[in-house]
């Protein structure tokens, strides 16, 4: 079933997500029904539904707000083993999931005063999206401890210059000066160093079932060839 509403929703999702994520998790979706106040999207299986709800619901909700349709409900349902014609749906190839450790942050000389100032600024302006303590649990919002060297090098351009506006990261130039942005980066660097030290301690070896998920993150790399 074709749906202009679904097409508009996808366009708003493209502003927030990478192409690989869109192709992997939204490409296989099909419109089951499109009613006045409800859009039902059919996913290949329950695993897809679970991932969409757990990892992508915030992005979907933001895209839905941009549709400006009050009262609209977006639901996901899993495709049954066979459709109404008795035909079996083709199985999707398995998804490759890699687990990556926290990267060592770039060298940065910080002071306790700078880190303390950065912590206050982070929790005032950043934690609402990136979570308190810089430990983002939302799959759609970057965990800043995993920031690459390129992100660190472009920190001010991202935080104050609006370089990532197209990805949903607004410019904070109206409330942050360059030293403020650098203080926030100092706080992130110290948080990353502290987490890495903890993950390399004996505690992780003793309680891997509790701490492995805090020390690594899953990265969907696409279907197997």
Average the pLDDT over all residues and give the rounded result: 83
Q: Would you tell me which CATH topology of the largest domain applies? A: Cytochrome Bc1 Complex, Chain D, domain 2
Number of helices: 10
Whole-Å distance between the termini?
Answer: 29 Å
Domains, number: 2
CATH architecture of the largest domain: Orthogonal Bundle
What is the CATH class name of the largest domain?
Answer: Mainly Alpha
Q: Strand pairing plus helix content: what structural class?
A: alpha+beta
Largest beta-sheet characterization: 3 strands, mixed
Q: How large, in whole angstroms, is the Cα Rg?
A: 21 Å
Question: Care to count the β-strands?
Answer: 5
The outline comes out as globular
Helix content: 40-55%
Strand order within the widest beta sheet? 1-2-3
Low-confidence stretches: 81-86
Q: What is the percentage of strand-forming residues?
A: 5-15%
Q: Secondary-structure element order, as H and E?
A: HHEEHEEHHHHHHHE
CATH level 4 superfamily of the largest domain: Cytochrome c-like domain
Q: What would you say this structure looks like, in words?
A:
The chain is an alpha+beta fold and 225 residues long. It has two domains: 4-81, GMP Synthetase, Chain A, domain 3 (2-Layer Sandwich); 98-223, Cytochrome c-like domain (Cytochrome Bc1 Complex, Chain D, domain 2). 46% of the residues lie in helices and 14% in strands. It is built from ten helices and five strands, in the order H-H-E-E-H-E-E-H-H-H-H-H-H-H-E. Strands 1-2-3 form a three-stranded mixed β-sheet, covered by helices on one side. It starts with a helix and ends with a strand. The relative contact order is 0.14.
């Amino acid at each position: 079933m074709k749906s202009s509403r679904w097409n508009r929703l996808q366009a708003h999702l493209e502003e927030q997500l990478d192409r690989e994520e869109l192709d992997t998790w939204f490409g296989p979706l099909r419109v089951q029904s499109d009613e006045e106040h409800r859009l039902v999207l059919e996913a290949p299986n329950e695993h897809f539904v679970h991932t969409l709800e757990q990892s992508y619901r915030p992005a979907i909700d933001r895209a839905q707000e941009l549709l400006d349709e009050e009262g609209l409900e977006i639901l996901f349902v899993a495709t049954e083993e066979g459709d109404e014609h008795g035909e079996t749906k083709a199985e999707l190839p398995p998804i490759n999931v890699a687990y990556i450790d926290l990267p060592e942050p770039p060298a940065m000389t910080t002071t306790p005063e700078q880190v303390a100032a950065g912590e206050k600024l982070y929790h005032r302006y950043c934690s609402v999206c990136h979570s308190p303590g810089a430990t983002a649990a939302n799959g759609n919002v970057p965990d800043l401890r995993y920031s690459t060297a390129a992100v660190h090098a472009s920190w001010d351009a991202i935080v104050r210059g609006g370089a990532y506006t197209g990805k949903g990261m607004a410019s904070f130039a109206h409330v942050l000066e360059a030293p403020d942005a650098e203080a926030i980066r100092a706080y992130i660097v110290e948080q990353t160093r502290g987490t890495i030290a903890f993950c390399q301690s004996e505690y992780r070896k003793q309680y891997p079932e509790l701490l492995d998920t805090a020390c690594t993150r899953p990265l969907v790399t696409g279907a197997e060839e």
